[in-house]
Amino acid sequence: MKTGYDEEINKEDERAFDEDIEKIDEEVERIFDEEMKKIDEQLEQEILFALVGEVNTGKSTTINRLMGEEKAPVAPEPGETFELDEYNFTEKVIFIDTPGLDDISKKNSDQTMKLIKKVDIILFFLNAAGTVFSESEKKVYDKIKKKNENVILVLNKIDAVEEDTIPKLVRFIKKNTGSKQVIVPISSKNNINIDNLREEILNILKKNGKDILFVRSLNEKTSIANKWIYSAGSAAGAIGLSPIPGSDIVPITGIQIGLMIQLAKIYDKELSKERAKELAVATLVGNLGKTLFRQVVGAVPIAGPAAAGAIASSMTIALGHAVKYAYENDIELDVDTLKGLITEFYKFNDPKKA
Ligand SMILES: Nc1nc2c(ncn2[C@@H]2O[C@H](COP(=O)(O)OP(=O)(O)O)[C@@H](O)[C@H]2O)c(=O)[nH]1
Ligand SMILES: [Mg+2]
Fold first, then answer.
1. Element housing 51 (H / E)
2. Chain centroid offset of residue 186 CA
3. Which residues line ligand 1 (CB under 6 A)?
4. Which ligand 1 atom lies nearest to the CA of residue 156?
5. Which of 116, 177, 188, 274 could form a disulfide with 181 if both were Cys (CB 3.0 to 4.6 A apart)?
6. Taking the model in full, what pTM does it have?
7. In the chain, where are the structural domains located?
């Protein structure tokens, strides 16, 4: 039975709803163009990697693992690379294989050192099963580090040594390089820790504003996309959303728009401003948003600001996953498909844990 009080509330709701949509409109206008421009500029750039290390340390094998594609030739025997050997992984992502360490340690290695200075990242390979951080490796490391800070030490072939020697090797390297040096033990043969290597690369590229360009070039984008979705979720969670409709909607819209644009760009999909707006509105203040809100509120056994945070976070994560799923499976994303995908998402993911 409807009471006058209910109607009063509904009118309140409707007014707040209209106001929210207007505010979301403004926020989308502001953020969409700004983000698109920033990312499009990023995508025009190039990422240069230099690969340094003794022959046979697994440089080529690692690159193939890292990018999820067999493009770099794996040498069956030592000495395959004699000069600077470039391979374009994509038009924008370029790996440059340097000749063995001897060349770099020589005084006349101008060409290589010029290259070292201009690359975004140097992957310096060490063989865990060999003489780790030998004198010549140390010498070359010091020389390179002076020209370019962005060195990642890749300790490869950890499958070939006893497990408890790995931390010892890492400590030994740190003693020679300083505690800040990033060292990633991996096995490119057995695909161990490649995710970590990818993340360390992204940490550096993010500083240089090239992270989206890198992820766009990966064959395997899902794990990074998930990371972005959850970090957008916690950013939204820190703002909180209470109640719907409510005043915290605007900054949360901003986070969601940013996330959608990032996903569109790495999956190489078109996302119009109108579509982005439509999806954000649907999730936050539309009928879908209201249904979700009730569903999540029912599932979150807490109240107050913590619940508001959990809701904002959960909805942003659900939206992110739905958008990612649609892009990965080439599904045209409108409000109806979004609704279906989000409902599916909640069926398999307890909002309490989202
Ligand atoms: N045991 C082991 N062997 C590896 C690993 N990565 C590469 N290799 C092998 O080491 C050899 C040299 O690899 P390659 O990638 O061509 O080395 P590059 O000369 O540094 O480019 C090949 O026979 C690879 O199969 C690893 O993680 N563990
Ligand atoms: Mg090679």
1. strand 47-53
2. 19
3. 53, 55-61, 74-75, 80, 156-157, 159-160, 187-189
4. 27
5. 177
6. 0.82
7. 12-42+221-348, 47-209
